[in-house]
Amino acid sequence: MTLRETLLKLEAVQELDLQIGVLQKKKNEMPARLASYDSQISLLTTQLEQKKKISEEIEKNLRQNQGALELNEERMKRSQTKAEAIKTNQEFQAVQKEIEALKKNTGVLQENVTKLKSELEVAQKSVEDIQTQISAIEATRASESEKIGGESKEFDTELGRLSGLRAQAVVGIDVRHLSQYDRVRSGRVGGVGIVPAVSGNCKGCNMRIPPQIYNELQRGNELHFCPSCRRILLYKEAADTQKSSGSSAGSH
């Protein structure tokens, strides 16, 4: 196999690597699609716990006020019974004063109970609303998770197919050249390790290739790298790249 044939095979391998890279990236991004749901659920769960504590505190205060109200009303009944049995005016006035104070306290307690019941209703409604939101998001997440599971299987199938094609494509390529290609592409954004050199320009970085290197590249006797982007160069005629671009455009 000539060096040019090796480079052309490496270019074909790269096409497969790029497809594999795109699929792998999409697969790796899948968990992030669930992360937003998890974040929302976590935030709402924190809010739910806070609302529950508020609700429990209001409920506790309500029970205390209801208990105090019952006790106050019982004391007032006893005072009224006591007033009926009093014979002296001085004792009667004292008991009446006590009854008035108990009535006033009853009014305050009744107002507190009414207010606390209203606050408890609002707090419990907030708890129910948040629980409903959490349930809805959990259901959506479960549906999305199932969808992702199906997509992941499809990606795995396609990745397996492409990996098989790559294994076939590298057959016959010199191990040294394959290693150089893998090393170059692994250090480049986009995973491009071999690029065409056309009309004296590197198509990887669009920089001008020194004439001497370009002339040697055309002879195809040894491996050359772009002095600017350090990618492997594959000499191509301008007509070849136009045909390639035309066929690529027609396939989209």
Explain the overall architecture:
The protein has two domains: 27-167, Helix Hairpins (Orthogonal Bundle); 174-251, no CATH class. The radius of gyration is 41 Å and the shape is rod-shaped. By secondary structure, the protein is mainly alpha-helical. The protein has helices at 3-28, 30-85, 89-169, 175-186, 211-219, 238-251, and strands spanning 194-198, 201-202, 232-235. The longest helix has 81 residues, at 89-169. It has six helices and three strands, in the order ααααββαβα.
What labels describe this entry?
252 residues, Helix Hairpins, 2 domains, 3-stranded mixed β-sheet, 6 helices, 3 strands, 4% strand
Calculate the mean pLDDT score and round it: 91
Cα-atom radius of gyration: 41 Å
Topology pattern, helix = H, strand = E: HHHHEEHEH
Query: What class would the helix/strand composition place it in?
Result: mainly alpha
Helix content: over 70%
Low-confidence stretches: 245-252
The CATH class designation of the largest domain is Mainly Alpha
CATH architecture of the largest domain: Orthogonal Bundle
Q: Give the beta-strand count.
A: 3
Q: What portion of residues belong to β-strands?
A: under 5%
